[in-house]
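User: Just a sanity check before I run the rest of the batch. Below are the structure tokens for the first item. I only need the designed sequence back.
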């Protein structure tokens, strides 16, 4: 069977040095222009040999064009990576942010000459605060994890200021993203793990047993990484507040709530957004991203410096004396912020909620179509993503095999083996930007894998069969990585 994303991945491309032929040229400068060039640098600083490959222009263009097709991207096909919200990124946004009036603005430009950009930052602070139900929002952090670090730092600054030195612990459910405990540890907090109940949620009795006067707060993802909405959220935030703690919200899953419900209204005191996920910015491979942090009224004074304010008709930077400090150079990742700003304006207040509704609809469509083929550990209702597992696969087929078989069928695999509370997890998040036809094709590929697992397990166990490299030795690849081509090998 042939699937839309399929391509000939078996094609082998030698490195450009192997394609080199002595004397071959793509371009040469007129002799006249080179006259005197040898006198620009002193002789001892000049190279005599650069060892660059020698090729014609057409060879270079074809080589890199072919290599570019080896990448899998959103522009290539469906990318159901759970928790990462790989939604389509409108091309018009890319065009707009490349406007030199943004790209060529020096970070040290005095405020009166940067009013347009500062106004956008100011408006973005307000819009994100409004979307999340917060009093204010900082654009400083460069990623979700950096937002967590900043938000937990704000909580630390708060307890420092009120002089409560006992509160050194933060509760985190066992379904949380790995960055959550790391952000607490980096801020000097000790992590207390809360075991999820049989519905994959926070149990109120369990929470009660963990709440002591040493607890600074809870770090909660809602909907959590199973896609399950913590329906007791109002009771949870009240219990934590009554015990003197604060509630941190991991907003990476805002795609399930965007424009429909506000974390601030649920009693969450501080939350990071992942602009690169929820607000449509190309991401993956480590960046770039942005992790703005929204806070409730009593935490505003602790936000990192600087902050954009409107003073006497002028947009300018301002510092707060009680700030947790600075968390990066200048102010935020402007390119990412700008794309998210445009994205919000494109939808407008009336339509922003359609993203979340369609994201939830798409995920539930996949869930309904695949639940007879793949096991669901938690039967609870889910929002924008669904987590299957490999526990009922025949012939010892594992999640890793299913992921590899999807590559053969032209798809980027979903998130695998996360969240940790589901053994052999397959976490699928389709996002709102996919059509029903795309979802149907993906579902067909997933069903084909489930059926082939029974009738021809070798096809799955040996996948991928259509790629140049099939299954590298993962231990060897980690222990003795070969990252560089060696001449003559
Ligand atoms: C992606 C994610 C993070 C971390 O965000 P980065 O931008 O990758 O640093 C944190 N929590 C959850 C639930 C996430 O999905």
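Assistant: Here's the designed sequence for the first item:
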């Amino acid at each position: 069977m042939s699937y839309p994303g399929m391509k000939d991945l078996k094609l082998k491309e030698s490195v450009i040095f192997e394609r080199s032929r002595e004397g071959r040229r793509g371009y040469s400068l007129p002799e006249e222009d080179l006259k005197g060039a040898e006198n620009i640098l002193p002789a001892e600083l000049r190279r005599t040999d650069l060892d660059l490959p020698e090729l014609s222009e057409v060879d270079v263009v074809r080589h890199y064009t072919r290599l570019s097709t080896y990448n899998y991207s959103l522009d290539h096909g469906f990318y159901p990576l759970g928790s990462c919200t790989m939604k389509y990124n409108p091309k018009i946004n890319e065009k707009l942010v490349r406007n030199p009036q943004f790209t060529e603005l020096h970070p040290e430009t005095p405020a009166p000459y940067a009013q347009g950009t500062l106004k956008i930052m100011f408006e973005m602070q307000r819009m994100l605060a409004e979307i999340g139900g917060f009093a204010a929002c900082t654009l400083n952090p460069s990623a979700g994890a950096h937002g967590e670090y900043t938000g937990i730092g704000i909580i630390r600054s708060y307890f420092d200021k009120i002089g409560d030195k006992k509160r050194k612990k933060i509760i985190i459910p066992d379904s949380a993203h790995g960055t959550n405990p790391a952000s607490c540890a980096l801020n000097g907090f000790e992590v207390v793990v809360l075991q999820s109940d049989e519905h994959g949620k926070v149990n109120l009795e369990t929470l009660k047993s963990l709440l002591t006067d040493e607890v600074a707060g809870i770090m909660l993802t809602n909907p959590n990484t199973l896609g399950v909405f913590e329906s007791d959220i109002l009771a949870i935030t009240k219990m934590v507040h009554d015990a003197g703690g604060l509630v941190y919200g991991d907003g990476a899953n805002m795609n399930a709530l965007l424009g429909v419900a506000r974390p601030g209204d649920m009693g969450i005191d501080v939350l990071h957004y992942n602009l690169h996920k929820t607000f449509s910015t190309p991401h993956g491979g480590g960046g770039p991203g942005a992790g703005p942090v929204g806070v409730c009224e009593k935490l505003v004074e602790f936000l990192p410096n600087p902050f954009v304010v409107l003073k006497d008709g002028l947009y300018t930077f301002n510092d707060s004396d009680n700030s947790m400090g600075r968390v990066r150079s200048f102010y935020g990742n402007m390119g990412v912020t700008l794309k998210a700003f445009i994205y919000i304006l494109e939808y407008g207040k009336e339509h922003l909620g359609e993203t979340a509704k369609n994201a939830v609809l798409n995920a539930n469509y996949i869930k309904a179509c695949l639940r007879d083929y793949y096991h669901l550990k938690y039967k609870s209702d889910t929002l924008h993503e669904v987590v299957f597992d490999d526990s009922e696969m025949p012939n010892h087929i594992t999640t890793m095999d299913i992921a590899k078989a999807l590559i053969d069928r032209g798809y980027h695999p979903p998130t695998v083996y996360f969240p940790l509370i589901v053994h052999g997890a397959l976490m699928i998040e389709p996002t709102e930007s996919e059509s029903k036809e795309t979802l149907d094709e993906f579902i067909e590929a997933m069903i084909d894998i489930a059926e082939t697992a029974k009738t021809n397990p070798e096809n799955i166990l040996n996948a991928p069969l259509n790629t140049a490299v099939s299954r590298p030795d993962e231990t060897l690849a980690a222990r003795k990585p070969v990252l560089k081509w060696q001449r003559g090998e």
